[in-house]
Write a structure and sequence with these properties.
With 375 residues, this protein is α/β, with parallel strands linked by helices. It is 45% helix and 14% strand. The strands form two sheets. Strands 1-2-3-4-5-6-7-8-11 form a nine-stranded mixed sheet, sandwiched between helices. A two-stranded antiparallel ribbon has the order 9-10. A hairpin with a 2-residue loop joins strand 9 and strand 10. The longest helix is centred in the C-terminal third of the chain and has 18 residues. The radius of gyration is 21 Å and the shape is globular. The relative contact order is 0.10.
C-alpha cells in the first residue's frame, strides 16, 4: 500500500507534460493550503511578486508554516517532498488570504497556485485548529451562506479578474465545500471557466442550495472524493455525486488525506462507502433536517458556550492539556441552566433514536437510559 508521500517520491520528478494533472495533485495542493503561509506568500491586496514552493526552503520565517502542531510531522514531510520535486518545487503561489474573525464567527483561507504547463489552481483551506472555525462548520447545518462561503465567491471572482483562461478550484474538508459553493454562486461567466471543482471529503449542502439551476450546470465538473467510512464528507450529502477512495485508517481518522491509498499514480477506488457507515450517515442527515432552525441555532450556541466557558480557544491547546480542558468542560456543563441541559439531552437522544431506528429492543433500552440521564 502507498500514500501521497509515495506518489511524490515516484512522480515528483515528472513535469505536468510528462504526467498530466490528476486528483492526487489536486489533493496535495489542497493540503498545502493548511500550512501557515502568512508573511511568506504575497497577500491578495499586496499585489506582490509570486513565490515558488522551493523559495520557501530558504525563507527565514519558514518554521512558522508548521505552527499547527496537530499535523506538524506530516505537513513538514509534505513541504519538503514538494519543495524538492521537479513537479511542484518551481510552482508559483500568490494572492494569499487568511481571515479569522470571532465577531462574525468565520475562518477563511485561500491561496492560488500556478503550476508550470498547467492551469492555475485556487485552493481553499479546510477547518483549522481554531474554535471559531469549527463553530462556523456547525452553522452549515442551518445557515446559508456561512461567512466563509461568501468569502469564497468573492475570492474566486477576484482571482478570475486577475488571470486569463480556465482554472481549477478545490479544497479538503470545509475547503471542498467552499470550492463547490463558489461555483454555484459566482457569476456564470466565471463559473464557466472552472475546469473542475474538487471536494476532498467536504460537507454537502442543504437541499435548497442544490435546487439552484446552476447546480445542474456544474454537476458534471464536481469531483468529490470521500473515504470508505466518511463522516465529514457525508454531512448534508443528498444529491452530490461522489467517488469512494480507500484509506488505511479507520473511522474519523480517514478524514486525514495522508491515510488515503495511492497506486499507480491514482487513488484506489471502491464501489461504495461501508454499508454500516452509510446507515449512520443517513441517520445523522435525517436528524439535522428534522430540527428547526431555532433548535439548531440554540444547540450550536449551547455547545460553544460550553467550550467558551471551558476557555478552549483552539484544538492545539486542547490537545496539549486534554485532561485539564475536559475537566473544565465538565465543570462548565454542571453550571449550565437546567433547561439547557434538558434541551441538549433531548436533541442528542433524538439523534440516537434516528441512528438506531428499528434496531433491537436492547439498543432501544440503552437509548432510553441515555435520554433519561440527560433530563
Amino acid at each position: 500500500m502507498n500514500d501521497v508521500f509515495g506518489y511524490l517520491r515516484k512522480y515528483g520528478k515528472k513535469t505536468f507534460q510528462e504526467k498530466p494533472f490528476c486528483d492526487v495533485d489536486s489533493l496535495l495542493l489542497s493540503q498545502f493550503c493548511y500550512l501557515k503561509l502568512d508573511g511568506l506568500v504575497p497577500k491578495l491586496k499586496e499585489g506582490g511578486q509570486s513565490v515558488s514552493i522551493a523559495d520557501l526552503k530558504v525563507h527565514p520565517e519558514k518554521e512558522g508554516m508548521f505552527a499547527d502542531t496537530r499535523f506538524v510531522k506530516n505537513n513538514r514531510k509534505l513541504f519538503e517532498l514538494m519543495a524538492a520535486s521537479v513537479r511542484f518545487g518551481s510552482m508559483k503561489m500568490n494572492y494569499f488570504v487568511d481571515i479569522v474573525d470571532k465577531n462574525i464567527e468565520t475562518q477563511f483561507c485561500a491561496v492560488t497556485f500556478f503550476p508550470e504547463g498547467e492551469r492555475p489552481y485556487i485552493a481553499f483551506r479546510g477547518t483549522d485548529e481554531t474554535v471559531v472555525g469549527w463553530k462556523e462548520d456547525f452553522c452549515m447545518a442551518f445557515r446559508n451562506p456561512i461567512p466563509s462561503q461568501g468569502y469564497s465567491v468573492i475570492y474566486v471572482t477576484q482571482i478570475a479578474n486577475r488571470i486569463s483562461g480556465r482554472f481549477y478550484v478545490g479544497g479538503h474538508s470545509k475547503g471542498g465545500n467552499l470550492a463547490v459553493y463558489a461555483g454555484l454562486f459566482c457569476e456564470e461567466d466565471v463559473s464557466d471557466r472552472i475546469l473542475f471543482f474538487y471536494s476532498f471529503d467536504g460537507p454537502g449542502f442543504r437541499p435548497e442550495v442544490l435546487q439552484r439551476e446552476r447546480y445542474a450546470q456544474i454537476k458534471p465538473r464536481i469531483r468529490k472524493l470521500v473515504p470508505q467510512s466518511s463522516v465529514i464528507g457525508m454531512m448534508l450529502q443528498t444529491q452530490e455525486h461522489y467517488q469512494v477512495v480507500r484509506s488505511m485508517a479507520s473511522g474519523l481518522l480517514q478524514h486525514d488525506p495522508f491515510t488515503w491509498i495511492v497506486t499507480d499514480g491514482q487513488f484506489v477506488r471502491l464501489d461504495s462507502i461501508y454499508k454500516g457507515r452509510k446507515v449512520l450517515d443517513h441517520a445523522m442527515n435525517e436528524w439535522i433536517m428534522s430540527l428547526s432552525e431555532e433548535q439548531m441555532v440554540r444547540f450550536v450556541q449551547d455547545l460553544f458556550n460550553l467550550i467558551k466557558a471551558a476557555e478552549v480557544e483552539d484544538l492545539v491547546k486542547f490537545e496539549q492539556d486534554r485532561k485539564k480542558h475536559v475537566k473544565a468542560l465538565l465543570e462548565a456543563y454542571k453550571e449550565m441552566d437546567a433547561m439547557e441541559k434538558k434541551f441538549m439531552g433531548d436533541l442528542l437522544g433524538k439523534l440516537l433514536r434516528h441512528t438506531f431506528m428499528g434496531e433491537t429492543k436492547k439498543e432501544n433500552q440503552v437509548i432510553s437510559r441515555y435520554c433519561g440521564a440527560h433530563k
